[in-house]
Amino acid sequence: MIEFINICVLGRVTPESVIFSFGTVLLDLLSGKHIPPSHALDMIRGKNILLLMDSHLEGHFSSEEATVVFDLASQCLQYEPRERPNTKDLVTTLAPLQNKPDVPSYVMLGIPKHEEGPPTPQQPLSPMGDACSRMDLTAIHQILVMTHYKDDEGTNELSFQEWTQQMRDMLEARKRGDVAFRDKEFKTAIDCYSQFIDVGTMVSPTVYARRSLCYLLCDQPDAALRDAMQAQCVYPDWSTAFYMQAVALAKLDMQKDAADMLNEAAALEEKRQRGGRGS
C-alpha cells in the first residue's frame, strides 16, 4: 500500500508505483467498475474470471485472454514492489493479445463524437450536479468559490514541527491561487496551485478540484481529469471529485462514462445528505 499512498497522497511517482497504477487501470477496465486498490487482490483471489468481467461485455471476449490480463493485473498490484513486473514484462505479455486494429473509444461505446453534454442522470441533482450536467463552467466556478475549503476539514493533520518556512510558503502559494481563482485568472491560479501541490507536505482535494476547473477553462480536459481523479484519491467519497470527472470526461467526448460518473456523484451526495439528517 506504500506505493498507493505515494501516488495519491504524496504525489511521488516511481517505476513501481506506475506499474501499480497500471494494474488498477487494467482491473477497472476488465470489471467495468472502480475497485479500491486495497481490496483488489482479495477480489481477484479465488474468484471465477467470468464473474469478475464487466457484464456489459456480454461474453464478447476470449476467456483465455481475460485470464492472462487478470493475472497480469494481480501481479501489478502485489504489495511488495519487487514482486511486480517491469514495463518490458508488460509489453511481452500484452503484445500477443493485440490482434485487432485500434478503434477510437467513442466508436467502441457507440457514442456520437460530437454529442453535446452527458445524458440526463438518474439521480436528482444538487446545484453542483446541475451545473456539471449542463457543462456550465461559470456556475461551477461560482460554487467552488462559495464552498471555499470546508470539504478539506480532516484531510490534513499537521504537527507543530511541520509548520516550517516551507509550509508557510506553500500556504502563501495557495492563497495567491485562491485570489487568482476568484478573479478568474485561471492560468495564474494553475501556477500557484501547482506550487502548493508540488511541495507535497499538505494535500487538499479542494485545490485539485479548483485546478481541475482551471484546466477545463484553459481547454485542457486531460489535465482536468487527472486532477479530479487525484481529488478522489485524497477524498474517496467526495461528490465534487466525481462531478469534476464527469465534466472532464464529457469534454473528452466520453459521454457514457461521463453520465455514469454524474450518477455516481449524485448517489454519493444523496448518501452524504442522508447521513447528515440521521446524525
TrEMBL record:
<keyword id="KW-0547">Nucleotide-binding</keyword>
<keyword id="KW-1003">Cell membrane</keyword>
<dbReference type="InterPro" id="IPR058209">
    <property type="entry name" value="TPR_BSK1_C"/>
</dbReference>
<dbReference type="GO" id="GO:0004674">
    <property type="term" value="F:protein serine/threonine kinase activity"/>
</dbReference>
<dbReference type="GO" id="GO:0009742">
    <property type="term" value="P:brassinosteroid mediated signaling pathway"/>
</dbReference>
<protein>
    <recommendedName>
        <fullName>Serine/threonine-protein kinase BSK1-like TPR repeats domain-containing protein</fullName>
    </recommendedName>
</protein>
<dbReference type="Pfam" id="PF25575">
    <property type="entry name" value="TPR_BSK1_C"/>
</dbReference>
<dbReference type="GO" id="GO:0005524">
    <property type="term" value="F:ATP binding"/>
</dbReference>
<comment type="similarity">
    <text>Belongs to the protein kinase superfamily. Ser/Thr protein kinase family.</text>
</comment>
<keyword id="KW-0723">Serine/threonine-protein kinase</keyword>
<keyword id="KW-0418">Kinase</keyword>
<dbReference type="InterPro" id="IPR011990">
    <property type="entry name" value="TPR-like_helical_dom_sf"/>
</dbReference>
<keyword id="KW-0472">Membrane</keyword>
<keyword id="KW-0519">Myristate</keyword>
<keyword id="KW-0067">ATP-binding</keyword>
<dbReference type="GO" id="GO:0005886">
    <property type="term" value="C:plasma membrane"/>
</dbReference>
<keyword id="KW-0808">Transferase</keyword>
<dbReference type="InterPro" id="IPR011009">
    <property type="entry name" value="Kinase-like_dom_sf"/>
</dbReference>
<keyword id="KW-0449">Lipoprotein</keyword>
<feature type="domain" description="Serine/threonine-protein kinase BSK1-like TPR repeats">
    <location>
        <begin position="130"/>
        <end position="246"/>
    </location>
</feature>
<dbReference type="InterPro" id="IPR045845">
    <property type="entry name" value="BSK"/>
</dbReference>
